[in-house]
Amino acid sequence: QGKSLIFYDLVSNGFKIQAMARADKSQDADFSKIHEILHRGDIVGFSGSPGRTKMGELSLMIHTSTLLSPSLYVLPGMHYGVKDPNIRYRKRYLDLLMDKTVREKFAIRAKIINHVRTFLNNRDFVEVETPTLNLICGGASAKPFTTFHNQLSLDMFLRVAPELPLKMLIIGGFNRVYEIGKQFRNEGIDLTHNPEFTTCEFYMAYADYHDLMKITEEMLSSLVFNLFGSYKIKYH
């Protein structure tokens, strides 16, 4: 950039476009002053018209500029990004800003949950919510997180699995139920285990393991095709 020609990369909702500010085309009262206070990470408002640079890149030709909300800390350079895994996981917002592949994972996760929900709903399963706080720890062999209910003066547990309440609903007359929700297990942490995690459990009356194998295969294969347009994917 120069004193009279400045380029910006505008990023919003996962999309990026270049913006170009020229002193001779600017309608700002003080071109130098407004652009001197803009920094990487700021939230800005630009008005202008679309156009192309001499290199042919589609750009926003800026007429007016407004600083909407300044970034109090300068973001790391886009070339280097955030490499420290502790910073990445403790400051997810920074990781999302610096690495678009992380944002894509969030979007894929949302699509997965939506597909599973639609798949089961279309097969007459009823989505339910069962208690997260329980008086007993059941449904799986796992160490629970414990808490205390002040009003009732009771020791309680965060659930390790929703199995028992879901089976009670089957007994109560619901032939097909499922729940997508958080489980909590006070155990180890590694690449495939976390104390707080999301599961989908579904139960189906008058069915055996052959039926469950079939519906699980259909769910997973349709999920992969829905996400990638193919039944073959590259994993790691």
UniProtKB/TrEMBL annotation:
- Could you list the residue ranges that cross the membrane? none
List, alphabetically, the InterPro entries matched: Aa-tRNA-synt_II, aa-tRNA-synth_II, aa-tRNA-synth_II/BPL/LPL, Lys-tRNA-ligase_II_N, Lys-tRNA-synth_II_C, NA-bd_OB-fold
Q: Name one GO cellular component term.
A: cytosol
One Pfam family it belongs to: tRNA-synt_2
Tell me one GO molecular function of this protein: lysine-tRNA ligase activity
Q: Which domain of life is it from?
A: Eukaryota
- The entry's keywords: Aminoacyl-tRNA synthetase, ATP-binding, Ligase, Nucleotide-binding
Q: Which residues form the signal peptide?
A: none
- Pinpoint the Aminoacyl-transfer RNA synthetases class-II family profile domain residues: 106-236
In the record, biological process GO terms are: lysyl-tRNA aminoacylation
PANTHER family linked to this entry? LYSINE--TRNA LIGASE, LYSYL-TRNA SYNTHETASE
Q: What is this protein called?
A: Lysine--tRNA ligase
The opening ranks of the lineage are: Eukaryota, Metazoa, Cnidaria, Myxozoa, Myxosporea
